[in-house]
Amino acid sequence: MITIAPLTSEDREAWEDLFRAYIAFYERVAPQEVYDRAWREFREGRRMHALVAHLDGKLVGITHFLVHPSTSALTDVCYLQDLFTAPEARGNGVARALIDAVAGWARDRGCERVYWHTRESNATARRLYDQVAVNRGFIQYQLPL
Prior knowledge:
Blueprint lengths: L1 E5 L5 H14 L6 H13 L4 E7 L2 E11 L8 E9 L8 H15 L5 E2 L7 H10 L13
Pfam family, one: Acetyltransf_1
GO molecular function: acyltransferase activity, transferring groups other than amino-acyl groups
Keywords: Acyltransferase, Transferase
């Protein structure tokens, strides 16, 4: 059985393990300060938010998201920034449940939509994303500062 809930203080170690695995999946490295800052922000729950998924009592999935204004919408929009499921839990509906939970959270707060990015080569995730959302065909560019 999958349960979705906000982070609790007991989740810290398992959450950080999954977040580190997410960062590694995208071939990045982050210093400890990134994890500490994110944890503080998520626990405050004002600017950045997180939900976790438990499967049979074990924390196996995380999602991080935030709300921001949009120049092309009447209301705020929700950006689902990170979504990760432990490899051993994949195929059990964990990612779908997390997306649904974020959508419900955003709907309850009057957001117009939820959106996210993934790598074009992330075929496994894209199979799910193509079932639950619309790919509008945008390409992301970044300008490091």
